Every structure is written in C-alpha cells, then in structure tokens.
C-alpha cells in the first residue's frame, strides 16, 4: 500500500517513509493562491515557494533581487490554498548567509507571517551554523546543493555542476554533513545523474532532483516551465506538459476580437 495515498497531510516524516518504501516524491513550485490550490488538489507532495519567483513572477534575470517581505507575501498566499502538501519556503539571498541570528530571524518571520512548514537554504558547510540554529528552533530545513542559483555570479553560468572530481567530492561530503546536522531532505540541482544516484543511495534522507536524473528520491520543476508559460526556457532536463504561453495568447486574442466586434457580451452575458 502506498504511503502517501492514505495521508491527509504531508509532513517531513511522510517524506522519510516514502524514501524508505521507494515511493517517488513529487514537488513543484508555487507562488500564488490560485495555482497552489490546483497543484494541491492534483495531489502534489511538496510545494516549494521558490525564490525562482524572482524570475517567473517579477521578471528579474536572477534570484538575487527578491526580498524576504516578497517571499513572505508569496508564501502566505500559497499556504492559504493548501490542504495537503508540505509547504517549503526558500530563504532568499541575503537573509541567512551573514550570520546565524539573521538566518533565524528570517526563518521566524517566514514561519509566523506566512504559516510555512519548512525552509530551504542553498549551500553546504559554509552555512552550517545557520542551519544548526534554525533546526534548534524546531524548524525543518531542506538543503540545496549542486547548481545553487543564488551563487550564479560565483559560478558564472547555469551549466551542470560537480562534473569534476573535486567538486563532486565536496558535494558528497556536504550532503552527508547536511544529513548529520538534521536536514529532512536535499534538493540536488543540475548535477550528473550518476553522482545524484550515489548521493541518494548513501543518504537516509530523501533527495529531490532537478536536472539530476532518475536515481534520486523525487523530482522538482518550476511550475511555469512545466506548463510552458516561460516559453523561452528549454533546458534538456525540462519536460513541458502544456504550451500555455501560446494557449493563453490564443484565448486572449479571441477575447480582444470579441470585444472589438461587439460579440462580447451577448444577451445571455448581461443583466
Ligand atoms: O527556487 C526554486 O524554484 C528552486 C527549485 C529550482 C528547486 O530552488
């Protein structure tokens, strides 16, 4: 019997049980009430209020500009919609790297003001002090290794990470450290599939991949990419399930045409 079919509310413990029973975890991003409601009703396990909101909602080139206040606004909208999924919220750039007190203050705002269930943070040993402090306040933490978009200016490109031995070894040791510290799950972004499989096999906590192949314990995508709303973004790892940019455009063109011709509203569409 599937672990998650029975479950009324997904918790970090459910995700752990899913890994133990080899049940893949599904995760998508959400930033607003209406979309979160659809994804939750569809049965998604985890909703990530990602700082990718900076790209897809606000139109910035990177995830760096989004603020803590903006993340809280998006997260609160998502939490209001959700009945079943676990809601994880990204700590935005600048809200946790400085010192662990700052990290805890940012986390407490996210938990109190948005009603989130957990936070996600990018990085390994460099941020361990902040992770320890957040965990000690009783807040579950999801780690994020590999391509960490908040460090894009250090990397220089969005290309696959940890192809070289040295970076792969650091990633493995960071993954083990995050598990030891008490993180409940780990996102692995854009790394070779063999490396992601190895990390997933060596860890007890679930791994959730994006561009990390099929050997992980779950998959995450940016919802706007999966639905084809972000039409110019076509990385190899992405599977589009709809072409909504075009479909919405066609619908809006039809509406404009109906308004201009006087066809809308008709007799039945007025009081
Ligand atoms: O912000 C985000 O959407 C993410 C996912 C790509 C994992 O961190």
CATH fold type of the largest domain = TIM Barrel
Oligomer: single chain
Number of H- or I-type helical stretches: 11
User: What share of residues is helical?
Assistant: 40-55%
Which ligands are bound?
3-methyl-2-oxobutanoic acid
Distance between the termini: 53 Å
What spatial form do the alpha-carbon principal axes imply?
globular
Question: H/E element string?
Answer: HEHEHHEHEHEHHEHEEHH
In total, the number of domains comes to 2
Low-confidence stretches: none
What structural class do the secondary elements suggest? alpha/beta
CATH architecture of the largest domain: Alpha-Beta Barrel
**Mean pLDDT level:** 97
Report the β-strand fraction as a percent range: 5-15%
Could you give a short account of the major beta sheet?
Answer: 8 strands, parallel, barrel
- Rg calc: 20 Å
Task: Please list the strands of the largest sheet in the order they lie side by side.
Answer: 1-2-3-4-5-6-7-8
CATH superfamily of the largest domain: Phosphoenolpyruvate-binding domains
Keywords:
271 residues; alpha/beta; TIM Barrel; 2 domains; eight-stranded parallel barrel; binds 3-methyl-2-oxobutanoic acid
At a glance:
The protein is an alpha/beta fold and 271 residues long. It has 2 domains: 229 residues, Phosphoenolpyruvate-binding domains (TIM Barrel, Alpha-Beta Barrel), CATH 3.20.20.60; 29 residues, no CATH class.
Describe this structure in words.
- 42% of the residues lie in helices and 14% in strands.
- With 271 residues, the chain is α/β, with parallel strands linked by helices.
- It has two domains: 12-240, Alpha-Beta Barrel (TIM Barrel), CATH 3.20.20.60; 243-271, no CATH class.
- The chain has an eight-stranded parallel β-barrel, surrounded by seven helices.
- α9 links the parallel β6 and β7.
- α4 (68-81) runs parallel beside α5 (100-114) and α5 crosses α6.
- It binds 3-methyl-2-oxobutanoic acid (KIV).
- 3-methyl-2-oxobutanoic acid is lined by residues 29, 48, 50-52, 90, 187, 189, 210, 220, 222.
- 3-methyl-2-oxobutanoic acid binds next to β6.
């Amino acid at each position: 019997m599937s672990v998650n079919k029975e479950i009324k509310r997904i918790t970090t413990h459910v995700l752990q049980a899913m890994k133990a029973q080899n049940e893949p975890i599904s995760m998508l991003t959400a930033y607003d009430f209406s979309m979160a409601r659809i994804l939750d009703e569809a049965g998604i396990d985890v909703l990530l209020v990602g700082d990718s909101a900076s790209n897809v909602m606000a139109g910035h080139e990177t995830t760096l500009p989004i603020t803590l206040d903006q993340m809280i606004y998006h997260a609160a909208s998502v939490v209001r919609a959700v009945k079943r999924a676990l809601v994880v919220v990204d700590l935005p750039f600048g809200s946790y790297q400085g010192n662990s007190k700052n990290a805890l203050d940012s986390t407490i705002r996210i938990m109190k003001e948005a009603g989130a269930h957990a936070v996600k943070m990018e990085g390994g040993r460099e941020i361990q002090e902040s992770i320890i402090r957040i965990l000690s306040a009783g807040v579950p933490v999801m780690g994020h290794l590999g391509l960490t978009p908040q460090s894009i200016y250090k990397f220089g490109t969005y290309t696959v990470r940890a192809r070289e031995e040295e970076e792969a070894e650091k990633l493995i040791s960071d993954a083990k450290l995050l598990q030891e510290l008490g993180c409940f799950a780990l996102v692995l972004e854009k790394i070779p599939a063999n490396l992601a499989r190895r990390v997933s096999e060596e860890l007890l906590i679930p791994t959730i991949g994006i561009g990390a192949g099929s050997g992980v314990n779950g998959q995450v995508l940016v919802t706007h990419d999966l639905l084809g709303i972000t039409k110019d973004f076509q990385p190899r790892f992405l599977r589009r399930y709809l072409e909504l940019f075009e479909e919405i455009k066609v619908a809006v063109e039809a509406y404009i045409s109906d308004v201009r011709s006087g066809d809308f509203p008709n007799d039945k569409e007025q009081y």
